[in-house]
Design brief:
With 194 residues, the chain is mainly beta. It has two domains: 78 residues, Elongation Factor Tu (Ef-tu), domain 3, CATH 2.40.30.20; 89 residues, Beta Barrel (Elongation Factor Tu (Ef-tu), domain 3), CATH 2.40.30. Helices cover 11% and strands 44% of the residues. It has three helices and twelve strands; from the N terminus they run βββββαββββββαβα.
Length: 194
């Protein structure tokens, strides 16, 4: 479980394609501290388990399903990614409850920019629209954000300068793909009403 508060930007150092699997190696600094093989890390919002660790890198095996349904399958060597270690029971919950189980891969429909203002319009998959509400929580590429508006085929989020500076959304643009995880609490509430 995660909070959606990105700890650092890592960099994809190596990608090795195997049959139905990717071996992914990410260079990191802060995220490595205290981590062990088997621990979970959110990589652009995708929960991955560490299979190898060095002083400067974390390695993960990524299964076929994850490669198809998330942006991990589009990673290239040199790409920056959002990293967050799993939540400890004693930690503050600064963002919202995030599982790292991506609902779907989406696309940035538009980016509006002004002085200290960034609005990202992100397409909604109709299957998941019911879980997205204005002022509710949403996870975009592992970043806990508040939904600003919900329209027919997209939702908007607004970034403060620090979020733009410390996460990959700072250099994402119209047409870029992002991982979306809807609010797990909203999902459970709506599913229980059925």
């Amino acid at each position: 479980m995660f909070t959606g508060i990105v700890e650092e930007l890592g960099r994809v150092q190596k990608l090795e394609k195997k049959k139905n699997l990717f071996h992914l190696q990410i260079k990191a600094k802060k995220t490595i501290a205290g981590m062990r093989i088997g621990d979970s890390v959110s990589v652009d919002g995708v929960c991955l388990s560490i299979v190898r660790k060095t002083k400067t890198t974390l390695s993960f095996d990524v299964m076929r399903e994850t490669l198809i349904t998330t942006t991990v399958g589009t990673f290239k060597v040199g790409d920056q990614v959002n990293l967050e270690r799993a939540l400890k029971a004693s930690d503050r919950l600064n963002g919202h409850i995030v599982t790292g189980h991506v609902d779907h891969m989406s696309v940035i429909k538009d980016v509006k920019e002004a002085d200290n203002y960034w609005e990202y319009k992100i397409r909604i998959h109709k299957k998941f629209k019911k879980y997205i509400v204005t002022k509710g929580s949403i996870c975009v590429d592992g970043i806990s954000l508040t939904v600003g508006a919900v329209k027919k085929d997209y939702f908007s989020v607004y970034l403060i300068p620090i979020t733009r500076k410390l996460t990959t959304l700072g250099f994402k643009k119209k047409g870029d793909k992002v991982n979306i995880e809807t609010d797990i609490l909203a999902r459970y509430l709506l599913e229980q009403r059925k």
